[in-house]
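Q: CPXCG motif-containing cysteine-rich protein, please. Structure only.
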Amino acid sequence: MIEHFFTCPYCWQRVSLLIDAGTDRFEGIEDCEVCCNPIEFDVSVEAGSVVGFSARKAQ
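A: Structure for CPXCG motif-containing cysteine-rich protein:
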């Protein structure tokens, strides 16, 4: 697992997302661990490292 830190687009707190290092792409919605609002993620992984990451307010 890769722990990737980012800023929540709702509450602006620094939070983390656990990403499976065995996948090459993750798209999904997870709730912020601080404010509980839904965040939409688009993550790209190569060789066990995050190479692309976006976190935005879920529509």
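A: Brief note, in case it's useful. The longest strand covers residues 38-46.
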